[in-house]
Write a structure and sequence with these properties.
Order of helices and strands: EEEHEHEHHHHHHHEEHHH
Number of strands: 7
Strand content: 5-15%
Radius of gyration: 23 Å
Largest sheet: 5 strands, mixed
Strand order of the largest sheet: 3-2-1-4-5
Number of domains: 3
Helix content: 55-70%
Number of helices: 12
């Protein structure tokens, strides 16, 4: 009788120029983080049943993970914060690239991460555009804050010029997002149905899909948890604390905040839901967070079913 062998998780610590690999037969301890280096790593695996696991590393992990998906090798992205907490729990204080690779492998073995799926190329492009838009908005906010302080006229003129340039760049990014939406049938259809919900606009659709490309393949609970919008209970003995949200994808929550504010004013279903929460004694911020969760769950349902046309009634929360 053949017993099923457990899946091996291969830890990879990614840096700008190098991939450090956890111990595995036939593999070198290091490979260049280049197309040729990644191909050599996957060739050396020789079709072994492994899941390549890498931390989010500011984009340096993209080449490895995308190449894995293209070549049919299972891959996962693990959260750096959880790996570091795992190391502390094990009492491991030393930190080197090789130790990090081994830690990623041990963490993934103990907590098998969700495997990445092959996303359409437009999702990768959309994620990059949405991220760049947020960077430009943040730069604009920083420059506007500087103008509120006492600065020499020459500096103020330079900031004003930079603000004009940032406005032009934002217009170009917005146009690129709109062009991508129009040119992609799947995204255009989702956008048309999603924007029929009051409070949801094209930029919201782009941000939500950009920061959660898994949208449509998740359950309501999974979507809320990934966004960090699932309430977490705090209890100890006889003590009962308040539930709170945290973790997850902060940029996604940020993208849902203003749509929720607008929806509370103009979407009769969500406004009634918000007022009901307030009548139950919930603080305004908590009630608004619940509206954000409702919106995300509805968008997830719209993405999951192309034939679903929202009737402005969000699903259960």
């Amino acid at each position: 009788m053949n017993e099923t062998q457990p899946t091996v998780h291969l830890g990879v610590d990614v840096s700008k120029k190098r991939l450090d690999i956890s111990a595995f037969p036939g593999l070198k301890p290091k490979y260049p983080n280049t197309p040729a280096g990644v191909d050599r790593l996957l060739d050396d695996l020789g079709g072994a049943d492994v899941v390549v696991c890498a931390e989010a590393s500011g984009g340096y992990e993209i080449l490895l993970l995308e190449t894995c998906l293209k070549r049919g090798v299972a891959a996962s992205k693990v959260p750096p914060g959880r790996v570091r907490h795992y190391a502390k729990a094990l009492g491991i204080r030393a930190k080197t690239d090789r130790i990090d690779a081994e830690l990623i492998a041990r963490f993934a073995e103990a907590n098998p991460p969700r495997r990445l799926t092959t996303h359409a190329r437009w999702k990768v492009e959309l994620a990059a555009l949405v991220s760049r838009r947020d960077q430009l908005v943040e730069m604009r906010k920083q420059e506007e804050n500087r103008l509120e302080t006492r600065l020499p006229q020459a500096v103020c003129r330079d900031i004003a010029g930079h603000l004009e340039e940032l406005a032009e760049r934002l217009d170009r990014i917005d146009a690129a997002i709109a062009e991508l939406v129009e040119a992609t049938a799947e995204l255009a259809g989702f956008c048309e149905r999603a924007t029929s919900v009051k409070g949801v606009g094209v930029q919201t659709v782009a941000a939500v899909m950009g920061y959660m490309p898994e949208l449509g393949s998740l359950s309501s609970r999974e979507a809320a948890a990934l966004a960090g919008l699932a309430p977490i209970t705090r209890e100890s003995g006889e003590w009962r604390g308040r539930r709170f949200i945290g973790g997850g994808r902060a940029q996604l929550r940020k993208a849902l905040y203003m749509p929720a504010v607008v929806a509370v004013q103009h979407n009769h279903v969500l406004r009634a839901f918000y007022l009901r929460k307030r009548a139950e004694g919930k603080p305004a911020k908590l009630a608004l967070t619940a509206v954000m969760r409702k919106l995300l769950i509805l968008l997830n349902r719209i993405a999951a079913n192309p034939d679903f046309v929202p009737d402005h009634e969000p699903g259960p929360c």
